[in-house]
Write a structure and sequence with these properties.
Strand content: 15-25%
Number of helices: 13
Oligomer: single chain
Bound molecules: pyridoxal-5'-phosphate
Order of helices and strands: EHHHEHEHEHEHEHEHHHEEEEEEEEHHE
CATH topology of the largest domain: TIM Barrel
Structural class: alpha/beta
Largest sheet: 8 strands, mixed
CATH superfamily of the largest domain: Alanine racemase
C-alpha cells in the first residue's frame, strides 16, 4: 500500500553528523540522546548507525524507550533520565545493567534497597528548575556512597537552559557552567556531561578546550541552533562545521481542481481564491503531525522545485496548496511529489517549516505520526 506520506532519513548523514559532533571534544563523555523514538526518526536504525561508528552509549527517557534498543543492540549502554522509576522497571533496568541518571533521593533509596551492584549518574540542578539534586546536597553523597558501596557513581550531569550562549561570559549558561565546574571538583572520578546540541556546537564556534561531556540530540539531524542564523560570521562558522540535514518529509497530490474566483478552500472558508485557481490536495494532515496553524498565509511547501503556498485550514488528513502560479506548464498529475521539508536545497528546511507555525524543530519532528512511513536511504 502506498504511504500517505514518507519521512526519508539519510543514515550516511547521521553517521557523518555524529562523527563531527563527537570530534568537537574527542576525549570527552559523548552520549547522544535518542528520546522520543530518536526525535521521530526511528530509534533502532539511528542507534544501530551510531553503534556502527563506535558510539557505545545513548540516552533515553525510560525503560520503555530503552527496551527496543537493548533488544537490537544488547551490548550498548543506555542512560535513563526519567525520575520516580516504578519498582518493576527499576529491577529490569538494574538487571540489564542500564545506567540511571538519578535526579532525586526517592530513586536513590529504591536503588540502594535493591542491594545490587548498579552504576549510576547523578543529575544536578544548576538553573533549569526541572530535575536534579540541589547543589548544596552534593556533600551528602559522600556519606551515601560510603553506606552503599554497591552503587557505583560513574557520572554527574546537569542540563542547560539554552546552551548556545555558552561562549558569552555574561550568559546564564555560563553561570550554570561555573556552578557545574565547582561540582565536578567534588566528584573527581566521575565523568561529566552538560553540553546539549546548541552548547556543543557553540563550543566548536568558540574553540573551547575544556573536557566537558555532551548529550547531543537535535544536532544529529543537522538542525541549526538559532544563534547560527544571526550574523554572517556565525553562518560561516556553521558551514565550517558541516552538519547536514538528514531528513525529508514528503507526500503527494491526491486530488486536483480548478476553482473560480472567490471560491473558499477548506474548513471555515478562511481562504478564498482571489482569482481562478488551481488547487491540489496533499495527503498529510494534523493527525499525522502536520500542525493546523492559525496563520496559513506564511506556510509553503516545495512542488516541482518551486515553493508554493498552503491555502485554507490544514485538515485531519489533508492540506491544500495553490498551484496556479507554477512555472512548469506540463499538466499536473495525481501522485506527484510534494516536499514539506527536506535536504533538497530549494525545499524549506525543518527550521523554516517550524518557524512558520511558531514552533521548534524538536516539536515538528516528534509530532510526525507513526503512520508516516520512515524510509532509510
Ligand atoms: C537531559 C537532556 N539532555 C540532552 C538533551 C538533548 O538536547 P538537544 O536536542 O538540544 O541536544 C535533552 C533533550 O531533550 C535532554 O532532555
Amino acid at each position: 500500500m502506498k504511504s500517505r506520506a514518507v519521512l526519508e532519513i539519510n543514515l550516511e548523514r547521521i553517521k557523518q553528523n555524529a562523527q563531527i559532533l563527537k570530534n568537537i571534544k574527542p576525549q570527552s563523555f559523548f552520549c547522544p540522546i535518542l528520546k522520543a523514538d530518536a526525535y521521530g526518526h526511528g530509534v533502532i536504525p539511528i542507534a544501530k548507525t551510531l553503534w556502527d561508528i563506535g558510539v557505545n552509549q545513548v540516552g533515553v527517557l525510560n525503560a520503555e524507550e530503552a527496551y527496543p534498543i537493548l533488544k537490537a543492540i544488547p551490548k550498548i549502554n543506555i542512560l535513563i533520565f526519567d525520575p520516580l522509576i516504578p519498582k518493576e522497571e527499576l529491577n529490569w533496568i538494574v538487571k540489564n545493567n542500564l545506567t540511571i541518571v538519578c535526579s532525586n533521593w526517592k530513586d536513590l533509596e529504591n536503588l540502594s534497597n535493591l542491594n545490587k551492584k548498579t552504576q549510576i549518574h547523578l543529575k544536578f540542578e544548576t538553573g533549569f528548575s526541572r530535575l536534579g539534586f540541589q547543589l548544596n546536597s552534593a556533600k551528602k553523597f559522600y556519606e551515601f556512597f560510603k553506606k552503599n558501596p554497591l552503587l557505583k557513581l560513574k557520572g554527574i550531569g546537569t542540563h542547560l537552559v539554552s546552551g548556545e550562549d555558552l561562549g558569552d561570559k555574561d550568559s546564564f549558561s555560563f553561570l550554570q557552567l561555573k556552578k557545574f565546574l565547582k561540582l565536578i571538583k567534588l566528584f573527581p572520578k566521575a565523568k561529566n556531561h552538560i553540553l546539549n546540541s546548541p552548547a556543543l556546537v557553540s563550543q566548536f564556534a568558540h574553540c573551547d578546550s575544556s573536557n566537558l561531556g555532551s548529550r547531543p540530540g537535535i544536532s544529529l539531524y543537522g538542525i541549526k541552533p538559532k544563534i547560527f542564523f544571526q550574523t554572517k560570521k556565525a553562518q560561516k562558522k556553521w558551514s565550517q562545521l558541516n552538519l547536514q540535514p538528514v531528513s525529508c518529509l514528503k507526500s503527494h497530490i491526491v486530488a486536483l481542481q480548478e476553482i473560480p474566483k472567490k471560491t473558499p478552500v477548506s474548513y471555515g472558508a478562511r481562504w478564498k481564491a482571489s482569482k481562478k485557481s488551481k488547487i491540489a490536495t496533499v495527503s498529510l494532515g494534523y493527525a499525522e503531525g502536520f500542525f493546523r496553524a492559525q496563520d496559513h498565509s506564511k506556510r509553503e511547501v516545495l512542488f516541482r522545485g518551486q515553493r508554493v503556498p498552503i491555502v485554507g485550514t490544514v485538515c485531519m488528513n489533508f492540506f491544500m496548496i495553490d498551484l496556479t502560479n507554477i512555472k512548469q506548464k506540463k499538466p499536473i498529475r495525481l501522485g506527484e511529489e510534494v516536499i514539506i521539508f527536506g535536504s533538497n536545497k530549494k525545499a524549506l528546511s525543518v527550521e523554516e517549516q517550524a518557524t512558520a507555525i511558531n514552533t521548534i524543530p524538536y516539536e515538528l519532528f516528534t509530532s510526525i505520526g507513526s503512520k508516516v512511513k520512515r524510509v532509510y536511504i
